[in-house]
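To: structure subgroup
Subject: Chain for Friday's discussion

All,

I'm putting the inputs and outputs inline so they're searchable in the archive.
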Amino acid sequence: MIPCHCVSFARVGVLRDGEFGNAGVNEVAAEVDFPVSLPQCAPLEIATINHIRNDLLTHKIASHEEIEQHLENVRSGMLDIAHPPLIFVRGRRADA
């Protein structure tokens, strides 16, 4: 499952363009990379969760059972794991 945040991404350029202009940046452009799910994403997700497991438990972000259920869902292929979209923004300062 990949949620669609297309409207949010479109609005980033609109909202940020004025901020860039106020900072003296012009020729602002952006690119978005929407990743696809790859088989290598599942082992990376498992390793990441295992790495941050103690923090998730200590800060009560997730219970042991929730973590184990998530890991089982990843291992079984029930979840379509992909890395998050990447947004690249560039511009040119007027005085550069």
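Points worth raising on Friday:
The chain has a mean pLDDT of 76.
The chain has two domains: 1-34+85-96, 38-79.

D.
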